[in-house]
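Model it.
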Amino acid sequence: MVPQNPCERLRVYISNFKYSLKTLKVLSNDAIRVVNLALHYLRDPEYYLEKSDCITGLITISYAEGLIDALRMIGAVEWQWLRKPIKIVLAAGSFDILHPGHVAFLKWASTLGDKLYVVIARDSTYKKLRGYSPVLNENERLAIVSAIRYVYEAVVGSESDMLEPVARIKPDIIALGPDQFDEERLRTMLQRKGLTNIHIVRMEQRYSEYSSSRIKEKICDLFCSQVKC
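Modeled.
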């Protein structure tokens, strides 16, 4: 199925093109310069993807593919187009008052595979763990996270079973933030559910200057200094 979103199409296009380059075999020295030019063109769509100018990115990567394919047609190279197996990454969190630390985490998680799914904590789960309700409800948090370009799809979690979304999405990788869960405990929980062959990767760098709790405290301090509380 061809993705309809231009940026998702470009992401898949780049991934498949790079994967297909494994089959490239140069048969003529005269083709080397053109091959290098095609590889140089590959940098452009990656740049445009980063800048979210995905229509331009789709145009530029077609140049790179066209050069390699033309060389194949005249017998200067051997090359076969392949589709790279999709690697799915899953991340989770409450994301109540989104901040740059959240975005950095999601950007990092997206680099671990091809599609990043994000599970948003339910309001009831948030309140159970923290003792109070989130500032933004689950639907608002879902809408905000869904709008982040690193995220393929965001879904709300289960109120009764934390691993239900994992069983449904079937990720290859679970991405953890620096202070999320205990890896061994999570691995044991997955095994008990029969969810094996899932790689757990933890983000090492913590953006300590950012915290939803600190942001909430700052909002309260600023608000209460100007308005009678």
